[in-house]
Amino acid sequence: MKLTIGRSALLGAAAIASFSIAGNLHAHGNVTPQAVDTSALPDIDGGNDHWLEENPYTGNPKAIEIGESAYGQNCARCHGLQAISGGIAPDLRYLELGASGDEWFVERFRHGSSHDGKVYMPPFGDVLGQKAGWAIRTWLETQHTED
Ligand code: HEC
After folding, report:
1. Tens-place pLDDT, residues 7-43
2. Atom 29, ligand 1: which residue's CA is nearest?
3. Which InterPro entries match (predicted)?
4. What's the CA-to-centroid distance between 78 and ligand 1, angstroms?
5. CB of 67 within 8 A of CB of 138?
6. Model-level pTM?
């Protein structure tokens, strides 16, 4: 009897814990980030503590594939399917190629964008990680347009 009560109390506590984790994610701009499996990509020295300034995966077909799917799950709802913006958020096909585009991409990916206490874009750096970030950037490079 005692054991039964203890066990259900434990299950209750676990349910509350997982509920509040989901609640916290929702507080960040109402987004539940979708985990990205980046195990097929080369590791980056320093993990998420040291971010590179330039994309290490440019042209890597595996990164393009992973990036396309990660973009679809985490970014498309604001930035548009196939990176074609419907106007809510900037059209990422115009993001500059090369080092200065990389730098700006990483800044926004890691920290998102907030003004006056309002979250316009939630931060993704800690939740998705550096490898997923560069994979998305690699796919975006394939969608780049000048017009
Ligand atoms: C909740 C909506 C939302 C989601 C989700 C979102 N963004 Fe954004 N993003 C924005 C908005 C709005 C801006 C413009 C912010 C500003 O200018 O202050 C922006 C800006 C950017 C910029 C800078 C673009 C520029 O031209 O200055 C990049 C890069 C970017 N986002 C990448 C991403 C990536 C990659 C993802 C997915 C991992 C993502 N965003 C998910 C809303 C979003």
Report:
1. 545 444 444 444 444 433 334 445 688 889 999 999 9
2. 105
3. c550_proteobact, Cyt_c-like_dom, Cyt_c-like_dom_sf
4. 7
5. yes
6. 0.83
How does pLDDT run across 40-82, given as a tens digit for each residue? Answer: 999 999 889 999 999 999 999 999 999 999 999 999 999 999 9
Give the angle subtended at the CA of 43 by the CAs of 51 and 28, to the nearest 5°. 50
Q: Is 121 in the pocket of ligand 1 (CB under 6 A)?
A: yes
Residues in the chain, how many?
147
